[in-house]
Amino acid sequence: MKKTIAIAVLAALVAVPAALADKPASKPAKPVAAEKTWVKVGGGKTLGTVVTLASVGVTATPLKPATTVSGNVRLPITQGKLILSKTGETITGVKGTVGHVGGLKLTNGDKSVAVRNLTLVGNLVAGSPDASKLTAQIAGKRVDLGTATLGAVTVAGGKVTVPLSAVSLSQDAATALNTALGTALVAGTSLGTATLTARVVGKGKA
Is residue 94 included in any domain, yes or no? Predict the structure, then answer.
């Protein structure tokens, strides 16, 4: 049966009129359609620097289970879920949240305040300004800690990596910290960079 089909196809190709010989053998490839997938995370860490606080004389000490590694803050990740927009294998958008435990105790002279339980809120949409941010509990009240600019997100080897190429202090956080510490921080001040690396515990089509 297979030989009969092959001969029939060959005969049909030979019989193509000469006028059609210049037409392309196949249609141009269609653009790769965007798709969405999701990943659920369950553990990992975010390692980052906080540059502004040292410049204004504020000391930072980790609140367990957070630690410091070579001058950087390491915050354990609890859980979260990210919806990833993809074109081919390239991730072009990220939406969702990833939570952390622990935090930092910030001290300025005889004044101190706790910044706990940071949450990354991803809101990166292709073709739009990045609206991602970090939120945190400052003195027990959750506020937007600052805006976050996300770098190239990757998923490989059972891990998702989200670079935060820039973190800028929000007005609400600046007000809360200045009230608690007697500092003069201003909105938009750089807080440094960070890299979130989380273990993937589930994934699928979104």
Answer: yes
